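Session log. Operator J.P. requested a structure for one protein chain; no other inputs attached. Running the standard single-chain path with token output.
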Amino acid sequence: MQQLIVLGGGGFSMEKSPLLDQYVLHATRKEKPRICFIPTASGDADNYLLKFYAAHAGYNCLASHLSLFRPHTNDIAGYLLEQDVIFVGGGNTKSMLALWHDWQIDSTLKQAYEQGTVIGGISAGMICWFEYGLTDSIPGALTPLPGLGWLAGGACPHYDGESERRPSLHHHVASGAMPTTWAADDGAALHFIDGQFHAAITSRPNAKAWRISSDTNRQITETAIDCQYLGITNN
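Structure written below.
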């Protein structure tokens, strides 16, 4: 089974709630899964690593990370293929993909994914798996960026968290620069199994996920996706 779980925002890097982090770990169906964090997009920022380890110290897992700036192994492929979860952090998607290609990380991640490793990510780690992502990697206006193309269509994180996201995405989908796109608010995640949409889950009661499409007249349709809130709802 091939699983991809992508966060529009939230998780250990953005909130105190453990709900999305634990959802990713539980998807492995392992009692104590091995999870590797890849913070390439942030330049392997130390504070990002601290947040990862601080959060996962409280979970029943074996946490580690892979640095391309301070490598700790000569067998990166072997190391990644031993993991139950590989989680990709946010930052500069364009630079991350360039480094991955040079280190052949992209092909190793695809092999891990096809062998059943749960692949997760937030922001840059959300959009990189699709044909296109809406990115701020390049200075100026938000722009479409070609991704790895594991999944069809486009992806956009932080849909409610950054004011320019919604109008920029509508513009690029209407113009044809981006295909029909999955968008996720901060605190929302999309779970794909074997390349097909499986579920939308949230760590915040009001977080949402969306499908953004355009017709031949460049009219935008914004369709809300039913989401499952992972917390306790007070009735």
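Operator note: The longest helix spans residues 46-56.
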